[in-house]
Amino acid sequence: MDSCVTIAMAAEEFELALLHVNYGQRTQTRELMAFENIADFYGVPASRRMVISIEHLARIGGSSLTDTHLEIHDAERESRGIPNTYVPFRNANMLSIGVSWAEVLGAEALFVGAVEEDSSGYPDCRETFYDAFQRVIETGTKYEHPLRIRTPLIHLSKEEIIRRGLELGAPLQLSWSCYKSEERACGVCESCVLRLRGFRRAGTEDPIPYERYPDDDLLR
Predict the structure, then answer these.
(1) Tell me: the pLDDT tens digits for 125-156?
(2) For residue 73, what is the domain's CATH number?
């Protein structure tokens, strides 16, 4: 959902080129479908869509998103540190691919739908991480005027992201956030709960189907 709204924001300023990364996550097939559907919605041609596999992250392991031997825990009201859904250094891998393609395209900006609110702040979803990676780009690429990383959602709540998406007409019904399921969203993982809480606070209904809904106290 965050990427969907970020695309809508980028489309206001730029011609789009969209990157999707498979990394061996449990919902890989469903996320790829969401990518293609959103790209279709915005009329992005095949030549400006890139699908990359970095499934070595699944072989490396260390995350319940990629290792089925680890349990994806249901969301809790009070988070307890960084959850086991954190994929070690995933976003750095993704950014590196994005920067390489951006250099070839001559792109001005690399938009990323990172949000600090997510799961108590994954280390690679923090503003300081993107500031540091910006310096890497400036040091290690040929750009005379360096490519700029743009993280327009970084300090927004899920409620604010949803409201912004609705203002822009972003196709939220095509997005997918669930960590566990591909048919109907589970409704109880941390990603589902953050999303559902945001929709409730925004005063509107989430358009995607859910297997079940979390306890009311988690959505307040």
Answers:
(1) 999 999 999 999 999 999 887 899 999 999 99
(2) 3.40.50.620
In the predicted structure, residue 118 carries a pLDDT above the cut 90:
no
Residue 159 in any domain: the answer is: yes
pLDDT tens profile 55-109:
999 999 999 999 999 999 999 876 678 899 999 999 999 999 999 999 999 999 9
Assess contact for 30 and 69: CB atoms under 8 A: no
For residues 61 and 64, give the distance between their C-alpha atoms in angstroms, rounded to a whole number.
8
Give the three-state DSSP class for 20. strand
pTM for the structure as a whole:
0.96
Structural domain contains residue 168: yes
Rounded CA-CA distance 195/176 in Å is: 10
At position 126, the amino acid (one-letter code) is: R
In a domain, 51, yes or no: yes
Amino acid of residue 135: R
For residues 173 and 133, the answer to whether their CB atoms sit within 8 Å is no
Report the candidate in 119, 146, 120 with the shortest Cα–Cα distance to residue 131.
Answer: 146
List Cα–Cα distances, 140 to 52, 98, 118, 136, 151, in angstroms: 22, 14, 29, 6, 20
Closest CA to 24 of 83, 84, 76, 68: 68
Distance between CA atoms of residues 21 and 51, nearest Å:
6
